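A further point concerns the way the authors explain their paired sequence and structure data. An entry of this sort, consisting of the sequence and the corresponding backbone structure tokens, reads as follows:
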Amino acid sequence: MSRPFPALVLLTLLGLPGCAPPGPREYTSAEGGYLVLMPGAPAERTEQSIAGPMRTATVTRWGAAYQVSHLDLPLPPDTSPEALEERLEGIQNGAVHNIDATLLRGKKITLGGKHPGRDVLAELPQGTGLIRLRLYLAGGRLYQVSVRGKRDLVEGPEAERFLDSFTLLR
């Protein structure tokens, strides 16, 4: 008489091949000039915004949306650091307002030690989840790196790894 139970236990302990979620993979946007670790192959699209075309790369996985977008802004190269900070403040407030979210936290950050940014956490309408958003201004371009979903995903290690992995190529 065969004993399938020990074999089943062994397979469970070792994990079934192909059943684990794929690890993050590098996504490079030559046009956007950035690299980021995405939890899958992103869908790319271009949307028309009030300031011009905005290009996005989005992966929806594990109940969360991981997105990077970039948009060229009409900022003169000699824009003062104070004016950049004012612009970021306005972008942060506009982004939260546009999705009817409630700002929980907005903190000044930098990318690569030189590009000003914001780390934003907001609650989505009707308590449907959170959005964590990092905004950066670099060379007249706005970059938005975001994770949207349930609290445990947005504040979890996968989201943190994604947000931290964003790097400019130039």
Notes: Strands lie at 25-29, 34-38, 43-49, 52-61, 64-72, 102-111, 115-123, 130-138, 141-149, 167-168.
